[in-house]
Amino acid sequence: MLTCQRNLFDIPADVTYLNSAYMGPMPISVQQASQAALQLRVQPWNLQPNDFFSPGEQARSKIGQLINASTEQICFVPNVSNPMGLLERHLAKAWANGSQPRNKRKIVVLNEQFPSNVFPWHNLRSLGFEIQTVCAPAVDSAFNGNAANERVKLWNQALLNAIDADTALVGIEPAHWTDGTAFDLEKIAQKCHANAAYLAIDGTQTIGVEAIDLQVLKPTVYVAHPYKSMLCNYGLAFAYLDAVLMDSQPLEEHWLMRHNARDFTRLTDYQSEYAEGARRFDSSNRANPAMILMLIASLELFEQWQPLRVAQYLHSISSEFCETMKQAGYAIADPNLRCANIIGLRPPAGTDSQSIAEKLRAHKIYVSIRSGSIRISPHMYNDANDFKKLSDQLLSIT
Ligand SMILES: Cc1ncc(COP(=O)(O)O)c(C=O)c1O
Predict the structure, then answer these.
(1) Does the beta carbon of 242 lie inside 6 Å of ligand 1?
(2) Whose CA is nearest to atom 11 of ligand 1?
(3) For 14-31, how does the pLDDT look when each residue is reduced to its tens digit (9 = 90+)?
(4) Of 304, 236, 380, 290, which Cα lies nearest the Cα of 32?
(5) Cα-flanking dihedrals φ and ψ of residue 364, to 5°?
């Protein structure tokens, strides 16, 4: 099993950072990669045209291994809503040219899902598509004992029930960003495929922590922005696109994403052919040495750690904490029903969560409040002692 990796981070000894779902602290190796890249930029005579392409290919190959997908189907995007926008445009076009069956106009999303995987679908409502929001069952009054587990199971069931022959698209997160509720992606994918519905997955909160196999899930879009669970920077995310989107027109007509763009002497030959595979959709941030070299450094860390081992470590350091808090009247789902890096703690009725977070902050313990739950998001720099500090404070506050 992995051990605590705090020595790879620059985190002061008195800080208990349990908030990677807000923003992951950058490991020293990622910071160093950005410094090396800036040095390249300071002396650009050392930058070759190849540097606009090769690091991107190196990162693409590592991403392919991480999510088990072909490099030909991976592109770099600036944020989560970008590849969702591509699918939105595809659906709008299919609707306009009549290839989208008229009954297939239901779009299924989760209640309080992150907006980047909701706003693009809102745009489709003017065409006749309808959004069905699947809510968590109301079990708040009995939020103790098994109620937290029941909530996850019932929510999953409600989601599966919502997917039927009229469904055009399901937009989903592997685990809810507010409290870590895990959704059974395999069952959801099966139901989508059985009903010929598109599947758009936003893996931003779980990439690198929960193993994901796109050969099994075969989604239409999978996208992850690596500045949270992958401890990297904001602005260079990556996406997998299904073959159905591969011939689409990119959202931007960037000069680097054309066939043979490597030859900088012939850029004004205005090549009409796009770059191969999903590369036509690449964001120009891919050619920013700082962004891409940081991403490679982060991918290298997760290659060493491996998602399954990260998840195992995070469950191991939080298990005693979860038991203690359950006994104190907090509702927490079992480990197999939530992701390893987000623990949504629902305080007993009448507790003011926001004031709890502020009191914790005064002790340099950092968590977030999201939709009524205290969201605790550990990572490889945390250990069981951090959770002990948190439970001591929580028990003394409430
Ligand atoms: C689940 C999830 N997806 C995406 C994002 C960020 O979205 P974007 O990449 O569109 O900025 C967040 C940020 O909190 C998030 O929690």
Answers:
(1) no
(2) 79
(3) 999 999 999 999 999 999
(4) 290
(5) 60, 35
